[in-house]
Design goal:
Number of strands: 17
Number of helices: 13
Number of domains: 2
Structural class: alpha/beta
Strand order of the largest sheet: 11-12-13-14-10-15-9-16
Distance between the termini: 30 Å
Shape: globular
Strand content: 15-25%
Low-confidence stretches: none
Radius of gyration: 22 Å
Order of helices and strands: EHHEHEHEHEHEHEEHHEHEHEEEEHEHEE
Length: about 500
Amino acid sequence: MKIFVAGLLTETNSFVNLPTSIETFRQGHVRPGQGHTAAPIAGAELMWVSQRRAAAGEFQLVEGSCFRATPAGPTSRQAYEELRDEILSQLSAALPVDAVLLGLHGGMIAFGYPDTEGDLIERVRRLVGDKCVIGVEFDPHCLVTEKRLAHSDVIVLYKEYPHTDIVEQANRLIDIVSGIVQRGWRPVASLYDCRQIDSYPTSAPAMRAFVDRIKSIEAERADEVLSISVVHGFVYGDSPDLSTRILVYTNDAKALGDELATTLGNELVGMRGQTAPPLLSIDAAIDAGLSSSAFPVVIADPTDNAGGGAPSDNTEVLARLIARQLDNVAFGPVWDPVTVQLCLDAGIGATMPLRVGGKVAPTSGTPVDCVAEVIGLKRGAWQLFGNSRVECGDAAAIRIGGVEIALTTGRTQAFSLEAFTQVGIDPLSKQMVFVKSVNHFYAHFGPIAAKVLFVDGTGPLRRDYSAMRYQHVRRPIWPIDAQATPALLV
């Protein structure tokens, strides 16, 4: 069995002024043969798993490129076409192949290509023909469109949010693809549209129980049920196909798949408005942290999350921490390449005037003008995203009064403790740790937190989805519309 693997990943926020360029993808390019690392590179997990299984003798592997870009605004048309055509050229040179594995995000939008991954999958199908098996791994914050289903054989999504099971689901995808090629499996899809927009962290009780039940169904009925995925959708990706959906693949058992997708979808409809944690005002979050008898209290700002395409330079929470003269607090990471470079030039121990954050847009807030001490520096900083490694550029830490702030040249959210520890900030010793993240921080910060809270930091990622100014989302859909009727699409 001969398999080709490649990847193209970014998540598109339709509402931010940060276009995604070819240079951004090139910075995150994992070239063929490059991903043979001890731990997977974030975004290239499917390639990493494929390499290991090929090395074990399961199949012959031909590696294409994996292009990754931090979530931001729409990708330029030229960038997408160039990257797409490079992958297609690599695939063409590898033909004939028995299967193609594509590691995609599923939430990408390029200028001129509203269904970007659908376009890529369709072109792959034209190239390889109907007999070749196409397997796709998506992030749950994706779109699952009828076009994507029509031109692929199977699509598997990560189940966990935070995404701690990317490698596990990559293995599941390869198992299914191998079953199709070697055992004659016949996966059939059932897609149920819940007609709703919401957030579904599996670190919260409601979604934890829901996903655990899905895993139990897969385990107990493995001979019939190949895969069950919850399509969260990316709430800031303005697309006609944005909606929460349930995707079920059975082995030639369409009626069973329809029943499962409908049942699970209706359960999710019944959980509307109950899956996302509440947001506190800035002062209420600070007061809750100060009143806690145990520490650290981890307080997340989901409104300025780089993982959702935000700049990660909003200053409203930071300014309030400084104004209240708080002590023993960590904050970050703030995207501020200029300030990081000034800190690198000055060196650890320097005290100097700085202007922090507030640079990209009105939603970034007012820059914080301060006199700060440089307390830590790190060239080539990184974090862990689950078990994968995320590069963060250069980093610095500064102290303003009792607040210690992590700054980066690479736009990133807080994934793991390394966001702070690499620049000399110890989260475990702090009373409060403020992180810019929606939920991915939870995998590493949750275990050390005495309490986890969420703050409305006034960044660009609004959490009231009913107030979003969508232009392309198909209506009716909850919570914009009170009456939004779910339906089986496929």
